[in-house]
Write a structure and sequence with these properties.
Elements lengths: L6 H10 L7 E2 H7 L6 H11 L10 E2 L16 H8 L4 E2 L2 E2 L2 H4 L3 H4 L3
Parallel strand pairs: 1-2
Antiparallel strand pairs: 3-4
Helix pairs in contact: 1-3, 2-3
The structure holds a DNA duplex (13 and 13 nucleotides).
DNA sequence: CGATTGACCGAAG
DNA sequence: CCTTCGGCCAATC
């Protein structure tokens, strides 16, 4: 067993709660975790999240709505396909109307 | 234990 | 406009 009380667990918990058809950014998650300064850690957490099928990492993009981590997926355009499969439109590795589909945990998951 | 990296963000030049 | 730097935390080498 592994220590589940990790920073990652919190990230997974948020990403896992992302409603279908929505996307969020690393900084938004970090902000929700009160560690907005460590947005890089969110990306790192996602690196380990690829082992967890409950973590839709394809719904997590950078602040620009750009699929920065698509290169980490098994397929070259797998991330785009999954997002498009959820009704998103991807142009030039960027989510169209990103701000419209942007899902802010601090806004939706008001404690 | 020290240094490097990592799917980032934001500011400054 | 584009490039560079700093920062913050954690894991890996």
């Amino acid at each position: 067993m592994k220590a589940d009380h990790n920073f990652f667990e919190s990230v997974y918990a948020v990403v896992r709660q992302i409603p279908k058809g929505r996307v969020t950014s690393y900084g938004a998650i970090a902000n929700y975790l009160s560690v907005k300064q460590a947005s890089r850690m969110v990306g790192w957490a996602m690196n380990a999240s690829h082992a967890l099928l409950d973590v839709p990492a394809h719904r997590v993009v950078n602040r620009n709505g750009q699929l920065t981590g698509k290169h980490h997926f098994p397929g070259e355009n797998l991330m785009e396909e999954m997002l498009q499969s959820e009704g998103h439109q991807i142009i030039n590795d960027q989510i169209v109307d990103f701000k419209k589909v942007f899902w802010d945990p601090t806004q939706e998951l008001l404690s």
